[in-house]
Amino acid sequence: MDTTWIVVADSARARIFDAGKFGRDLNEIEDLYHPESRLHEGDLRQGEEGSQDESVPLARSGTGPKTSEHEKHIEGFARDVARHLDDARHRGRFDKLVLVAAPAVLGELRDQIDAATAACVKREIDKNLAQHSPEEIKECLGLSAGD
After folding, report:
1. How far apart are CA 77 and CA 55, in angstroms?
2. pTM, two decimal places
3. CA-to-CA distance for 28 and 16, rounded, in angstroms?
4. Is residue 113 classed exposed, middle or buried when 0-12, 13-18 and 19+ CB atoms within 10 A define those classes?
5. What distance in Å separates the CA atoms of residue 111 and residue 14, rounded to the nearest whole number?
6. How many other C-beta atoms can be found within 10 angstroms of the C-beta atom of residue 17?
7. Residue 57: left if φ>0, alpha if ψ -120 to 50, beta else—which one?
8. CA–CA separation, 21 vs 33, rounded Å?
9. What is the pLDDT of residues 30-72, one digit of tens each?
10. Is the predicted pLDDT of residue 133 greater than 90, yes or no?
11. Are 102 and 71 in contact (CB under 8 A)?
12. What is the full DSSP assignment across 5-59?
């Protein structure tokens, strides 16, 4: 029997659902949090307050845009979720995956999961539904009892 997991994520929360025997039910089996991703950029700064000499301008690299602290936290959370999924696949907890995530988070998840786990992904939806009810998620996925 194929076990399908549906991962619904935003930058700070990933909910994992088992799609049930016929893929019509959504039973939430895990809820992963990363509260730092919800903080404002100024609250995410590393180091002690006032530790930088503000009279010296920051050096800028010409190699591209600077990654913000918020983006680093999103990347770190996506890495944690990907490791969790990779481990679950190794333990045989699912056969197929559906990823539903905010666009930036979906991109990070794609980058972070290993090739074997990526091969289990059967569908991707770039939508932020992490705060929605299971019924709303089912509707977005086109799942219903009458299918």
Report:
1. 34
2. 0.76
3. 6
4. buried
5. 16
6. 22
7. beta
8. 27
9. 999 856 545 444 444 444 444 444 444 444 444 456 667 778 8
10. yes
11. no
12. EEEEE-SSEEEEEE--TTS---EEEEEEE-GGGGS-GGGG--S-TT-S-TTSPPP
Radius of gyration (Cα) for the chain, nearest Å?
18
Which is nearest to 35 in space by CA: 2, 71, 74?
74
- Please give the C-alpha separations between residue 141 and each of 35, 47, 66, in angstroms, as whole numbers: 27, 43, 36
Q: What number of residues does the chain have?
A: 147
Whether the predicted pLDDT of 116 surpasses 50: yes
Spell out the residues 6+ positions from residue 39 whose beta carbon is closer than 8 angstroms to its own.
70, 73
Distance CA 141, CA 92 (A): 24
